Each structure stands twice: as structure tokens, then as C-alpha cells.
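Query structure, 140 C-alpha cells:
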């Protein structure tokens, strides 16, 4: 299976960081991206597509806040860089969302592919690093 192209019932192994709540969040994030992609692909209309995108943007914020709280609590040494990556992605995502809601642009498969790619690469890179750090400290 190509990572995240089908509808998995759980997060693919290569995306698991070994911290259950965070792995659950990652599965939800990728599922929400998939929901928006499906709404666009099946022409469900702006209302449905915008609602799905709104849910995704809101959950990105929830997840980033939860993740950063965990990292702060466990004194993760690269928290500042991790937060900066989150802030940059959140800013780009919010700008895109505002443009879509304002009618400046439509939801596109290209933009959704970018969002998904960023999430997957972030999980496989920065999140794997802190996953190892937390697991070494007994966090599961």
C-alpha cells in the first residue's frame, strides 16, 4: 500500500511514532485530508468542501497544541524548532483557508496534496525524532 492513498483503519506502521495519542491524532489528520480530497474529487460542492476544510484546519491547531504541550512537559530540547515548523505550516494553512473562504481561490487537489505531503514528511522526520526521545523516557 502506498502511504495514505487508501482508506486505512489505522496509521501505517512507517508513520507511527509509538506515542498512542499522537499516533491517533496523525491518523485523524490524514483522514481529514482524505475527506477534503474526496469532497473535491466527487464535486460535493463548496459548502461540504469548506466544512471539511474547516474541520481539518481546526484539528491541525488542536493537534499542534497537544503535541507542543507534551514536548514542553517532557523538556524536548528541539521544541523551538518543532514549534517553528508547526507555526509555519499553520500560517500557510490558515492563509489558504482564508483565501478559500473568501472566494479568492478554490480548494484544489494540488494544495491538498501539499498539505498531506507536509504532514507525512513532518511525521516521518521531526515527529519521529521526538517520538524516540519520549520513548526513551518511558512515554507511550
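Result returned for the query:
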Amino acid at each position: 500500500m502506498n502511504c495514505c492513498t487508501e482508506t486505512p483503519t489505522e496509521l501505517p506502521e512507517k508513520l507511527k511514532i509509538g506515542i498512542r495519542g499522537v499516533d491517533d491524532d496523525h491518523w485523524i489528520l490524514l483522514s481529514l485530508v482524505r475527506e477534503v480530497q474526496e469532497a473535491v474529487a466527487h464535486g460535493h460542492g463548496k459548502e461540504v468542501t469548506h466544512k471539511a476544510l474547516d474541520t481539518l484546519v481546526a484539528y491541525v491547531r488542536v493537534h499542534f497544541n497537544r503535541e507542543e504541550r507534551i514536548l514542553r512537559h517532557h523538556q524536548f530540547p528541539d521544541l523551538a524548532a518543532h514549534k517553528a515548523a508547526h507555526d509555519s505550516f499553520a500560517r500557510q494553512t490558515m492563509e489558504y483557508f482564508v483565501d478559500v473562504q473568501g472566494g479568492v481561490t478554490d480548494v484544489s487537489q494540488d494544495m491538498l496534496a501539499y498539505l498531506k505531503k507536509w504532514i507525512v514528511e513532518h511525521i516521518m522526520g521531526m515527529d519521529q525524532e521526538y517520538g524516540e526521545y519520549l520513548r526513551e523516557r518511558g512515554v507511550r
